[in-house]
Amino acid sequence: MRPTGYATLALIAANDRVNAAGAAKWLVSRRNSQGGFGTTQDTVVALQALTEFATAGATDTNLRVKITVGGKTEEIKITPDNYDVTQVIEVPAGKAVEVSATGKGEAVVQGVLRYNLPDAPAAQSVFDITVDYKTDNIAVNDLIDVDVTIAYNPPEPIKAGMVVLDVSVPTGFAVLEDSLAALLDDPNVKRYDIAGRKVIIYLEDMSPGDEVSFSFKAQALYPVKGKGAASSVYSYYTPGWRGETVAPAVNVQ
Question: What is the pTM for the complete model shown?
Fold first, then answer.
C-alpha cells in the first residue's frame, strides 16, 4: 500500500489528476471496514494520499448520490462543506443495491457486510501472553523484572497488523522509564505509553507463529499486599483477536 500511496502523492504534486484518481481508487479498494490499510505505516501513507486527493477536488464538488434498495431510495448530498465526512447508510442484507450520482465531483462508495454465526464454536485465543514478576515478596525500593512473552497463533495464516499490549504493573510499583526506552532497540517494538499502573506497548505487524519476549523494570515504592493483575494483548485493527493473563500477586514488606 505504501508505494501506491507515495505514487498518489507524487501524481497529485505533478497535477496529474487522472492517474492520481486511478491510484486513489485502488487504495480505497484495499481499505478494511474500519478505515485502515493493514499496518500502521500503510494506513498513515494511504490516508495522507487520499486526504490530499480529496482536498484537491473538494472546492467544486456538488453531488447528489442516490442509494436504492428494495424500491426504497435514500439520497446523500456531497458539497465542499461535508466532502470529508463519512456518511453511513444501513441497507438490508440479501438485496441488490443500486447507486447513482448526478452533479459534479467524485465520491467513494464502500460496502461493508457484517454478520453473526448462530451456534458458533467457542472463541479461540489468537494470542498467548504470559507476564511474570519472578518474585512474590520484596522490600521497599527493590527492583523487579517484568517479563512479558506473547505468541501469535491465528486459526488462519493471516498477519495481525499492529499489536497492542496492555501490561499491568503490580500495585505499589513504579515503572523505570529508562528500561522501557531500551525496548525501542527491539525492531518489533514501535512505541510505548505509561498510563497509571499500565504500560501500553505497540508491536509491529506479527506473522503466524511469531513469538516476542522482552522485559522492563519496576521499583517498589511502599509496603503493600498485592493481588494478581490482569494483562492483555490484541490486534489493533481486529480487537476480537486477543489474549489475556493474570500475573501472580507481589507483596512489598
Answer: 0.53
